[in-house]
Design goal:
Blueprint: H1 2-8, H2 12-25, H3 30-40, H4 45-54
């Protein structure tokens, strides 16, 4: 939720930190994975979905 809050105010760096914190606690959290991918532009949602199936 805090990541979304920061993202809504266009505070990209803070939002990324929060999403990474969530993934540190719950690595398969798809909401945080998708949001982080969108902000960093590293992987699309399809790659995240496939990674979850095969990991």
């Amino acid at each position: 939720m805090l990541g979304r809050y920061y993202q809504s105010f266009d505070l990209k760096t803070r939002a990324i930190v929060e999403y990474k914190a969530v993934l540190g606690i719950q690595p398969k959290h798809t909401g945080a994975q998708d949001a982080l991918c969108t902000l960093e532009g590293t992987r699309g949602p399809l790659q995240v979905l496939l990674k979850n199936w095969f990991s």
